[in-house]
Design goal:
Radius of gyration: 24 Å
Largest sheet: 2 strands, antiparallel
Number of strands: 2
Structural class: mainly alpha
Length: 97
């Protein structure tokens, strides 16, 4: 299941890169930041176009899948939970001849 989620995350990352690269720049870049004071917050104008919605949707899907993927990871072998603390089980050392 983790492999499927990882593949979906990678595909969503490609879609997110597409949305980011296709958008028109909305600010003056680094020179616009130092050259003038504007009313924009972090250089992004609020608009309701499809590209911006696609960007935010892709980010949300990636974040949700990353959080959900944690549920499917198994615990490492040798880890036991006892009294709220994780402890490792150790075997006796090998006897020497």
């Amino acid at each position: 299941m983790v492999a499927i989620i990882t593949i979906v995350i990678l595909l969503t990352c490609v879609v997110l890169a597409f949305f980011v690269l296709v958008q028109n720049p909305k600010g003056g870049g680094l020179s616009g930041t130092f050259g003038s004071i504007s009313s924009q917050v972090m250089g992004v104008k609020q608009s309701s176009d499809v590209m911006e919605k696609g960007t935010w949707t892709s980010i949300t899907v990636i974040a949700a899948l990353c959080i959900i993927s944690v549920m499917f990871y198994s615990k490492p072998q040798g880890m036991e939970k006892s009294n709220g603390k994780a402890k490792t089980t150790q075997s006796a050392p090998a006897k020497s001849k």
